[in-house]
Amino acid sequence: MIPMQAGGDIGTFAEALTAWLAVVLPNAAVALLMLAIGWALAGWAERGVGRLVDRAQVEPTLRGVTTAVVRYAVLIVVIIAALGQLGVQTTSVLAALGAIGLAIGLALQGTLANIAAGIMLLWLRPFRVGDYIEAGNVAGTVKNVSLFTSELHSWDGIFQFVPNSELWNKRIINYSRLETRLVDLKFSLSYSADIDKARQVLLELATSDQRALTDPPPQCFVDQLADNGIVLGLRAWTATADYGALRWALIEGAKKQLEAAGLHAPLPQRVVHFAGEPPSFERRVHP
Q1: Are residues 162 and 184 in the same domain?
Q2: CA torsion angle 233 237 238 240 (round to 10)
Q3: What is the reported pLDDT for 90?
Q4: What SS3 class is residue 126?
Q5: Which residues contact 77 (CB under 8 A, 6 or more apart)?
Q6: DSSP helix, strand, coil percent of the chain (3-state; round to 5)
Q7: pLDDT tens figures, 110-134
Q8: Is it the case that residue 181 has pLDDT exceeding 90?
Q9: Which domain CATH number covers 88?
């Protein structure tokens, strides 16, 4: 009796397993097919949105985030549909995912802070891809901005991978945002130097350079009466892209032109009085 009963149980189990597989296998095959098609569809949607973004001339800062959001949105919809095809209650799955997401969010508060900072950076856009910025101890050209981090390259070729919260919580200086910048230089001359002649030399130097804007025109003025000499200020507006080149050219050209005109920078000097010597006695010391 026992072997016959065991055989009957095995037969019943086999029939139930066969019936279950007859239902599950087609659904599993359909679910796998849906995942494969969804994966390909997500890639196609990402590339299509990328082309639309490029055609619409949307800022490169937003391109990567937009295409990533579209890709993952398609994948999430496809995965939920595949689970529904397998008979899984999607409402329960969504509730479980919500609870898991809450727990992960509490554990990863720093990461959520980076996401919030990334959203604010992308929304307010204090800088764009290609801008040279400085924020706290970080400075460099922005190469990429994502929801979590930003990629910066410094002027000396250093790669910087910066969390967005480090940028958002600091004072951001954008050196590339405006179209023009002011070159502000100072030159020291001795008190015996001819101020009008020095001003003429510096203004001719600035106006002869095509990178210096004519509106507003360059300015030269007495900026300070220092201990050792007169300090002349030279200011010239230029395009932001030409700032560095014009600044270096004016510094080098000013030294050559001033010396050619017989105008020299003063040497630092100190007047030293020695105790016990007549008040009229003094020595000038040149360091």
Answers
A1: no
A2: 100
A3: 62
A4: coil
A5: 38
A6: 55, 20, 25
A7: 667 777 888 888 888 899 889 999 9
A8: yes
A9: 1.10.287.1260
Count of structural domains, the chain: 3
Same domain, 92 and 33: yes
Q: Round to whole Å and give the CA distance between 62 and 136.
A: 24
Give mean pLDDT, residues 266-278.
Answer: 67
Amino acid at 176: S
Q: What is the reported pTM?
A: 0.61
Q: Which amino acid is at 287?
A: P
Q: Which residue has the higher pLDDT, 232 or 36?
A: 232
* CATH code for position 148: 2.30.30.60
Residue 35 lies in a domain: yes
DSSP 141-183: EEEEE-SSEEEEE-TTS-EEEEEHHHHHTS-EEESSSSSEEEE
Q: 60-85 vs 109-124: helix axis angle to the nearest 10?
A: 130
The tokens describing 242, both together, are 């030409």
pLDDT at 180 over 90: yes
- The answer to whether 266 and 240 have CB atoms below 8 angstroms apart is no
Q: Is 133 exposed, middle or buried (0-12, 13-18, 19+ CB in 10 A)?
A: buried
Q: If residue 272 lies in a helix (H) or strand (E), which one and from where to where?
A: strand 270-272
Kind plus residue range of the DSSP H or E element containing 210 = none
SS3 139: strand
**Based on the domain organization, do 61 and 142 belong to the same domain?**
no
Model confidence over 36-45: pLDDT tens digits?
888 888 888 8
Torsion of CA 78, 79, 81, 83, to 10 degrees: 160
Q: Which domain range does residue 72 map to?
A: 2-107
